[in-house]
Design goal:
The chain is α/β, with parallel strands linked by helices. It is built from 7 helices and 17 strands. A 9-stranded mixed β-sheet has the order 14-15-16-13-9-12-11-10-17. An 8-stranded mixed β-sheet has the order 2-3-4-1-5-8-7-6, covered by helices on one side. Strand 14 and strand 15 form a beta hairpin. It is globular and about 50 Å long. The protein starts with 9 loop residues before the first strand and ends in a 5-residue tail after the last helix.
């Protein structure tokens, strides 16, 4: 069995393409609780209270979508090994390995997955001084849920190539994957097309979680769904829409996994397990529509040959 390309330490940041750059920057700083660390005319980089230089980057674009998933590894040597392993699998690099010229610097590489999502593996990014946990602000990104047209193929790629492990399934509708002790850093949701479902931001405690929701209510922002507590992952949840209608989530208390003791389970998709508290009710039509998004070809939009390559690697007909 071929080894994964690298040992991922965490999901460190997410890049989003947005049709509402200025309004979204205002939302994520004034309302959501992040802080701008660097800003350009067509992009912004925002930090949480943790040590990561940035946890979210926003890029001006004609259509909403996922720009990049960035995973941390320990050393540049691991990035170089990942490059060689990708080459051995026949997966081309979009860039790197090498020093990044983007804000936060670091040494990394980028490639795309079978549905066109750009994935970054990076080491030695700049750190920033942690901020006080007294504020009801996110520490950073804890997970991303991605819609996929083929949940089995998506889960298989991220496990076999990136070394993620399956924590749980929600029937055959969602797969929860982890790279460290957190129950999931990526979850896949079976859907009609590939797109971003939502990005989740970790609050330090349930109290911070509730105070964050209170701050959003102060600004006239009510949840699309929540507050509640999920069964898979045990995490609290409250989902909101940003100015571009991309979905962001406050969460806390994510289940921590002891690797040697964990056995994945298949959860039933019933209301009492979707929300253990019974406070949220079912997600509204608006929430479902925002989470579905629009078909997002990602890197395939500009480089359609990559889609054909991935089909060939998967043994699919052209």
């Amino acid at each position: 069995m071929t080894e994964p390309i690298a040992r991922l330490r965490s999901l460190r940041s997410v890049q989003l393409r947005t049709v509402e750059l200025a309004n979204s920057v205002d939302f994520y700083t004034e309302v959501w609780g992040l802080r701008v660390v660097e800003r350009e005319a067509d992009a912004a980089w925002l930090r949480g209270t943790g040590e990561n230089h940035h946890v979210l980057s926003l890029v001006d674009a004609p259509q909403n979508g996922l720009g990049c998933l960035s995973f941390a590894v320990a050393t540049p040597t691991e990035v170089d090994v990942a490059a060689r392993n990708l080459e051995a699998r026949g997966i081309p690099l979009l860039e790197g390995p090498g020093r990044s010229g983007r804000p936060g610097a670091g040494y990394g590489l980028r490639f795309c997955d079978p549905e066109g999502r750009t994935v970054e593996v990076i080491a030695e990014m700049h750190a920033v001084a942690p901020l006080t946990l007294d504020e009801s602000s996110p520490i950073g990104v804890t997970h991303v849920v991605l819609n996929t047209a083929d949940i089995d193929a998506a889960a298989r790629f991220y496990c076999e190539v990136l070394g993620l492990r399956v924590s749980d399934w929600s029937e055959h509708q969602m797969a929860f994957l982890r790279c460290n002790s957190y129950h999931h850093c990526i979850a896949f949701n079976q859907a009609e097309w590939a797109s971003l479902n939502h990005v989740a931001y970790e609050m330090p405690s349930v109290d911070h979680f509730m105070r964050g929701i209170g701050r959003l209510r102060h600004y006239g922002r009510t949840p699309l769904w929540g507050p509640g507590r999920h069964g898979p992952g045990n995490n609290t949840f409250s989902y909101f829409a940003d100015p571009a209608r991309l979905v962001c989530e406050y969460t806390s208390d994510v289940a921590q996994i002891v690797e040697a003791d964990w056995l994945p389970r298949v959860w039933r998709r019933v209301p009492e397990l979707a929300d253990l508290w019974g406070t949220a009710g079912p997600p509204s039509g608006e929430a479902r529509a925002c989470m579905a998004g629009y078909a997002d070809p990602g890197a395939f939009a500009d480089q359609p040959h990559l889609a054909e390559l991935h089909r060939t690697l998967a043994g699919e007909p052209h």
